[in-house]
Structure formats: structure tokens, C-alpha cells
Write a structure and sequence with these properties.
binds alpha-D-glucopyranuronic acid, ten-stranded mixed beta sheet
Length: about 400
């Protein structure tokens, strides 16, 4: 071995050791979780109990939304000067005539600056219009949503979704906030909302991705093929964190689907299992507002936990998907968060129930407004997951 190779070899060993030590620092032992107390979902900041939909909608829901804004994801500015939709490509005979392909450039302007979002969408031809749509907040790039369908990817299984009678759409998050801690601002933050960058509770990448999904819904409202009252906002992992936050913000979302969104998504932060707030804010500081950092290793001080985010979907629907091999995302913590969110659905007279223990692997639970599965296998969004989303949506929309 020459000196250069020796050095390379030594660096790899040191790096693996360090990685090992850091990973060991994460807890994967149920016995080591310890006691934790979740913040009250149905008690206001003035210590008043919430027992009616009116109190929830007028007081507690806005309070919780604001707490998530200020302490976790940052604000979501809604103002802009102009929005334009341009169908840049259309093919009514896509997928051997089964679908209509539309590629739409959505341009948003504010203070004379503009950002364009490129939406890809397939709509089934044989179904009565307008149709419900699965909208994917996609951090895996356009290659997973190939408009030509030469490259088919189980992450965005357009053929299967079309077959089930749904439209499928998606955009690459890079259009609005690149998923990179040094470059995330090179999108809507620098162009449209630079003032957010100065704020401790300012918008960052996850908020920007959800903002983008809302602009896609603005487009759906203008497209006669799409039923804009039946939008399913889907995201995997970091995308799932964004889809939950999007659904909480934008009441036009009918179902928020979180696929293995884990820490700062569907999983309870206080469980201290798998990824932690400390770890996520160190590795991905650009996802959250700067305020969130202070809760690393200090989760008990967080004024929210993630069950409250899931509860914000009521009286619409939320679906939580996990994978048994994805302990980093804490499947059990995601299940418990969903269970803890149920009292808010109950306020609306929705009597969804979940068992005390997580259901066995590959057994789906479909309640009226909440659903869950924990499939076998690793961290990914797969055709199996999509089949479950479709079954849940069929039940929810009574299709
Ligand atoms: C990392 C990160 C997770 C995230 C995941 C993903 O593992 O720690 O929080 O969910 O990436 O987006 O795939």
C-alpha cells in the first residue's frame, strides 16, 4: 500500500468508527425510553379544557398551529403578487391511451421576482371527471416522475395509480428550496420571501416544500379534470414531514399521507427512539426554523409533540405508513402519535379507534379518518405502500 492509499484506508476506518459511535448514541431500546409526558392536546394555553369543535377551531387549533410555526417549521407566508399557470406539454394519449399527461409551469411572483414550479401530472382517461389526485412532494428528483414513462419508479407508480382511477401529480422540491443546507435558500426564500431568512421563526425548506404543494392545489382548482376537494398530499420521509405540515396549514388537503416521516414528522419526539431532535437539527438545519435547535436533547421543553401535528388534520384524514425495518423513523412512535391524536377527531364525532399495541406487520388499519400500516422491509416508499394509500383513499372518498 502506498502512503496515499494508507491514508485513505486510515480515514475510512476512523470515519466508520466515528459513525458507529454517533449511531450508537441513538436509542433503539424500548426499555431505555423512560417516562415522558406529552403536552396536552385539549387544554389551551390559558389552562382551559377544550370540549367542543368551536373551542378547538377558535382557540386551540390556531394556538397549536402557531406553536409549530414558532418552534419547529417556521411561518408559511401566503402573500404573493401574481400566479400564472402554463400547460407546457400535453398528451391525451399517454400510457397507451390510458391517461392524459399534463406538464404545467406554475410561476409565482412577488416584489418583481419570480419562481417557477414544474408540475407533472397524469389523469386517467376512462374515469368520470373530475378525479381525486395524489400530489407527491418529491425530494428524489424528476427522474422518479419520468413524463415519458421510459423510466418507471415504484416511488411514484403512475401506472398503478391511474389504473385505480386517481390522478397523480408531483414536483421536485428543488424548484422551491434545494435540499441542501448551503443552497436551500436559492428558491422561494431568496427570490420571494427573503425577510423570512432573518427570522428565528422564519420559513425554511420543509415549509417551502409545503408552500409549493399549496401552489399545485391553486392550479388544481383551475383544472376541470381535477377534483380539488379531493387532494391527497403525499410525502416520503423528509417529504412526509412536509406533507403533514402542508396538510395542517392548507385546509384544502383532504388526506395527508406520511410515509415513514419519522422524527419531526409523525413520530413522537419525546420517545427518544431512533432519530432525535438534536441529531436532525444538526444534520439538516435547513429543514426547520432556527428556534427548533434549542430543543435538541431538550425535548421536554418543546411546547408541542407530533401527535398535535396529526391532530391538526381533523376533521379531514391522515394516513401514517411505517416500515418495520425503518427503526430510525420509530414505527411505534408514529403509531402512538396517531393514537394520541384521536381525541380531536372525536370532538368532531369521528369515533376512530386504534389498538393499544401496534398492529402486526403488513396489517393495514382503515378507520374512517385515520389509517396506519407497518409493512415489512426497509426505508422507502414502495408500490405496496401505494396500494395501502389507495385502499384508504377509496374508503375515505367512498369510491
Ligand atoms: C435521514 C433523516 C430523516 C429523513 C430521511 C429521509 O435519514 O435523518 O429524518 O426522514 O433522511 O428523508 O429519507
Amino acid at each position: 500500500m502506498n502512503t496515499k492509499n494508507k491514508f485513505r484506508f486510515a480515514s475510512i476506518i476512523i470515519f466508520s468508527l466515528l459513525l458507529n459511535i454517533t449511531l450508537k448514541a441513538q436509542n433503539y431500546d424500548e426499555a431505555l425510553i423512560g417516562e415522558y409526558t406529552l403536552p396536552e392536546l385539549l387544554v389551551t394555553q390559558n389552562k382551559k379544557e377544550v370540549t367542543t369543535v368551536e373551542q378547538w377551531e377558535k382557540v386551540r387549533r390556531p394556538e397549536i398551529l402557531k406553536l409549530f410555526e414558532d418552534h419547529v417549521y417556521g411561518q408559511v407566508p401566503e402573500d404573493f403578487d401574481n400566479i400564472r399557470f402554463k400547460v407546457t406539454h400535453q398528451d391525451k394519449k399517454a400510457m397507451d391511451g390510458k391517461a392524459t399527461l399534463k406538464q404545467v409551469a406554475i410561476t409565482v411572483e412577488r416584489n418583481r421576482n419570480a419562481v417557477t414550479i414544474n408540475l407533472v401530472m397524469f389523469v386517467p382517461n376512462k374515469v368520470k371527471k373530475p378525479v381525486p389526485v395524489f400530489l407527491v412532494i418529491n425530494h428524489r428528483g424528476m427522474k422518479t416522475m419520468d413524463a415519458t414513462r421510459q423510466n418507471k419508479d415504484g416511488f411514484w407508480p403512475a401506472e398503478e395509480v391511474i389504473e385505480a382511477g386517481y390522478a397523480i401529480a408531483g414536483f421536485d422540491v428543488t424548484d422551491v428550496a434545494p435540499d441542501n443546507k448551503d443552497k436551500f435558500a436559492q428558491g422561494i426564500l431568496e427570490e420571494l420571501y427573503p425577510e423570512q431568512l432573518e427570522m428565528e421563526n422564519g420559513m425554511r425548506a420543509l415549509g417551502a416544500w409545503g408552500w409549493c404543494a399549496s401552489r399545485a392545489i391553486d392550479y388544481f382548482e383551475k383544472d376541470k379534470l381535477i377534483d380539488a376537494a379531493k387532494v391527497i398530499s403525499v410525502g416520503h420521509s423528509r417529504g412526509g414531514k412536509a406533507s403533514l405540515w402542508h396538510g395542517a396549514q392548507d385546509k384544502r388537503v383532504a388526506i395527508a399521507v406520511s410515509n415513514e416521516s419519522g422524527n419531526s414528522g409523525a413520530a413522537l419526539s419525546r420517545r427518544n427512539f431512533g432519530e432525535t431532535v438534536e441529531r436532525i437539527t444538526q444534520t439538516f438545519p435547513h429543514w426547520f426554523c432556527p428556534n427548533y435547535r434549542q430543543y435538541g436533547g431538550n425535548e421536554d421543553k418543546l411546547p408541542v409533540d407530533q401527535h398535535m401535528l396529526l391532530a391538526l388534520m381533523a376533521p379531514h384524514a391522515v394516513y401514517v405508513a411505517s416500515a418495520a425495518g425503518d427503526l430510525w423513523a420509530d414505527p411505534k412512535g408514529q403509531f402512538l402519535a396517531l393514537k394520541e391524536a384521536l381525541p380531536v377527531f372525536e370532538l368532531y364525532g369521528i369515533r376512530d379507534t386504534l389498538p393499544d399495541e401496534m398492529p402486526e406487520v403488513n396489517r393495514q388499519i382503515i378507520n374512517s379518518n385515520t389509517g396506519f400500516h407497518n409493512r415489512e422491509g426497509q426505508h422507502n416508499m414502495t408500490p405496496y405502500d401505494w396500494q395501502q394509500f389507495i385502499r384508504f383513499a377509496n374508503a375515505y372518498f367512498k369510491l
